[in-house]
Specification:
35% helix; binds zinc ion; alpha+beta; 2 helices; 175 residues
């Protein structure tokens, strides 16, 4: 195997870190599940079985995410391993639309939720640290903003109760 550059090592380390975290999380879940499933067994078998199941799951996830991470980071042009990383991200707003949804509440009131739905064209730029080959990944992403919920009381016809969810429901959507 050829010597990796610092940049490649960094990328490899970050993929590895993600794989370890994923493996540990799933390992713990599987171990807990196995421990619960082995409820009828005695202590040693129960703990050993749970530990083994957890380890196997963790190892499987680790290997799987390492290989998919490595495949994704491999340059299609020069074949260098761990060389592709995202170098730029451009977003363009395509459409911004006011949306509304209504829900009938048990007491006859209507809960009205309004928000602005924005659709972006996203263009991610990936660059190979070895041969500087540039590739793009384009996709669309949808985001919600300015979400507001109002309750329209059925009692007072047409009156919109001002005590909408005052607990700032305006969520700034995550990037
Ligand atoms: Zn390359």
């Amino acid at each position: 195997m050829t010597q990796l550059t610092d940049q490649q090592e960094t990328l490899r380390a970050s993929i590895k870190k993600g794989a370890i975290i994923g493996g540990v999380i799933l390992g713990v879940i599987v171990a807990a599940l196995a421990y619960w499933l082995l409820g009828g067994q005695d202590g040693m078998i129960r703990q050993g079985g749970a530990g083994l199941a957890g380890l196997l799951a963790a190892g499987g996830v680790y290997r799987k995410s390492m290989s998919s991470g490595a495949a994704g980071a491999k340059c299609a042009k020069c074949n260098a391993a761990f060389s592709i990383s995202r170098t730029d991200k451009a977003e363009a707003l395509v459409k911004s639309e006011a949306r509304e949804s209504r829900k009938e509440l048990e007491n006859g009131d209507t809960e009205i939720t309004t928000w602005i739905e924005e659709i972006f064209d996203v263009d991610d730029t990936y660059t190979c640290s070895k041969c500087a080959d540039v590739s793009h990944k384009k996709y669309q992403s949808t985001r919600k903003r300015d979400e507001k919920t109002v309750v329209k009381s059925a009692g007072k016809k047409g009156a919109v109760a001002a005590k909408a969810n005052s607990r700032g429901k305006t969520k700034q959507s995550k990037n």
